[in-house]
Specification:
This protein is of the alpha/beta class. Helices cover 41% and strands 11% of the residues. The chain has 13 helices and 7 strands. Helix 1 packs antiparallel against helix 2 and helix 2 runs antiparallel to helix 3. The radius of gyration is 26 Å and the shape is extended.
Length: 318
């Protein structure tokens, strides 16, 4: 009776996997010889694994994959497909996520993106370079080459290569290099810039001029490894709120607990729901987003926050 009562309580607490495992333990005579600590550890492991699997299934369902039941084990590696099995098995482990921690920042103008990056660099005591994405163009065209952002970091590190390789590069106005829509000309300041930035974000050896932003025969060159440089890309992303809102209301339903189409119309923090799919719709290419795994959203400044900014700091205006 006591065991059944325990099972009922576990089910009531929505620990159904633990309840089922506990029931199996009770029916297995061999389990009586197992110490209580080990048996309890087994129950916790079962519940933990079940919750992780359920979360994974939920994420797969939300992603709306064309083939949600696809499996790595079912991949056909015959020679004609030229698939790298070792590389695919490495990707499955998600080790690459721990290797790169670059950050993608969205938020309205004036919400404090640049100030936060400057504060972070000051607290960590590392060099910081701030670049404007609107000035960047594909190599060979008028404008700053992609390597110029590394040149700025090297200058901020007093031309100390080792120090620069531990610094921070903040690329502002990143939304301005979104892929252009309905254009028949080469997008040298949009998608092409995103493509050029990939080699920096994923880690590479970059040759940059020392003491200058221009490469020429008289300027000494230095090789900077970007593997350990933290890249932070930020922008205001106008109209991104509309993209997120459209996605959230696309599946509106009816009923007492239904999600209504207008429930997000007045949501001031709508960007907290942003996903990579929304950023792709905005014009960022998948390869670029894949190298910026951490997405951070800044809230808009409210009237109360603006008043606090004017009154509370030590050097407050009012």
């Amino acid at each position: 009776m006591t065991n059944q009562s325990t099972i009922d309580k576990l089910i009531e607490m929505r620990l159904t996997a633990m309840a089922d495992a506990f029931r199996i333990q009770m029916d297995d005579p061999a389990m009586k010889e197992v110490p209580f600590e080990d048996r309890f550890g087994m129950l916790v492991d079962v519940e933990y694994s079940n919750r992780k699997n359920n979360r994974l299934k939920r994420l797969i369902r939300q992603a709306e994959f064309e083939q949600p039941d696809a499996s790595i084990a079912a991949i056909d590696y015959h020679s004609g497909r030229k698939l790298n099995k070792a590389l695919i098995n490495r990707l499955v482990t998600c080790e690459y996520i721990t290797e790169y921690r670059n950050i993608f920042v969205t938020g309205a103008t004036g919400s404090g993106k640049t100030y936060l990056v400057k504060t972070l660099a000051r607290l960590l005591d590392v060099p910081l370079a701030i670049a404007d994405a609107t000035a960047l163009t594909e190599a060979g065209y008028i404008g700053d080459d992609i390597e110029s952002v590394v040149s700025k970091l090297l200058a901020a590190a007093d031309n100390d290569v080792e120090k620069a390789e531990r610094g921070i590069i903040f690329i502002d106005e990143i939304d301005k290099i979104a892929k252009k829509k309905n254009t028949n000309t080469r997008d040298v300041s949009g998608e092409s810039v995103q493509q050029e930035l990939l080699k920096l974000l994923e880690g590479s050896q970059v040759e940059v001029p020392v003491g200058s932003n221009q490469k020429n025969a008289l300027t000494p060159m230095a090789t900077v490894n970007t593997d350990n440089i933290l890249f932070i890309c930020g922008g205001a992303f106008p109209d991104l709120e509309d993209i997120v809102r459209e996605r959230l209301t696309k599946k509106a339903s009816i009923g007492f607990q239904a999600e209504l189409k207008d429930q997000y119309d007045q949501d001031p923090d709508i960007l907290r729901h942003v996903t990579n799919q929304d950023l792709r719709t905005f014009g960022m290419i998948p390869e670029f987003l894949g190298r910026l795994p951490v997405v951070v959203t800044f809230q808009k400044l409210t009237r109360e926050a603006l008043v606090d900014i004017l009154k509370k700091p030590k050097n407050a205006i009012l």
